[in-house]
Amino acid sequence: MKFKMIICDFDGTLGSRPDVIEEGTVKAIKEYISRGGIFVICTGRMFASAKLICLKYGLDGIVVSYQGASIDDLSTGKSLLREGVDYKLAVEVAKKLKADGASFIADIDEIMYTETTNWYTDFHSAFTDVVMVDDIVECIEKLKRNTSKLVVVDQPENINRLTKKYQDEYGDTLTFNNGADTLMEVVNPTYTKGNAVRFLSYYFNIPLNEIMTVGDSTNDIPLLDGEWYGVAVGDAKDQLKKVAKEITLPFKDNPVKHLIEKYCL
């Protein structure tokens, strides 16, 4: 077994909506686990969504959600990490997004707060509470809780414009990236998918060079760009391919199954 731990993005890498993982891939994951490997789902989704996927397929290990801001052990029910964007900073960004006419959601304590519904809130309403508010800025101010992430939902051209504008403005203070062409996610750069890899390496005492990560989108750049072995699926974003150590099969050809069989079985 070349890699003792595999940390894998979900959407467009391991599975797809409506939360489907191909049967052969599930079988390969379980065989890998039975031989002592540690398989981790690492996603930008909220924890409630990732947890349901794992329960559906009988995967009860570690889940990284909110792009690294939360880490949970399903086998013990223990939360290993719970962080996010400071609420005062979230309020500042929220005010600017409203001024830009952007429609967005605030994920706080596994609840989605929003002024308008859209495909994103409709999808997540199946496993979490979506709370409609009159003023989302006032809502964040009143709750005074760290925001797991803010999510802007818009057309791709607007998402590209907003992502560049806000990343240029905030620099290293916040990360603005895209889990999909129609989404901009605002997260704390201290708690990235990449830092989740480092956290789990230390937690399980597994050297970084014995960890493989897999992803497909720009929000997976921190997941792949590190001292470990980062792999991009064949139809990944070009920006991700540039930092990958290997480019494997496209999503339709079950790349995670292929990688497990290639390196770990």
Note down, in words, how this protein is organized.
This protein has 265 residues and is of the alpha/beta class. It has two domains: 5-82 and 192-263, HAD superfamily/HAD-like (Rossmann fold, 3-Layer(aba) Sandwich); 87-187, Hypothetical Protein, Haloacid Dehalogenase-like Hydrolase, Chain: A, domain 2 (2-Layer Sandwich). Helices cover 36% and strands 22% of the residues. The protein has ten helices and 14 strands. The strands form two sheets. The protein has an eight-stranded mixed β-sheet with strand order 5-4-3-2-1-12-13-14, with helices on both faces. Strand 1, helix 1 and strand 2 (38-42) form a beta-alpha-beta unit. Helix 3 packs antiparallel against helix 5. The longest helix is centred in the middle third of the chain and has 15 residues, at 156-170. The chain starts with a strand and ends with a helix. The mean pLDDT is 96.
Key attributes of the depicted protein:
single chain, 265 residues, alpha/beta, Rossmann fold, Hypothetical Protein, Haloacid Dehalogenase-like Hydrolase, Chain: A, domain 2, 2 domains, 8-stranded mixed β-sheet, 10 helices, 14 strands, 36% helix, globular
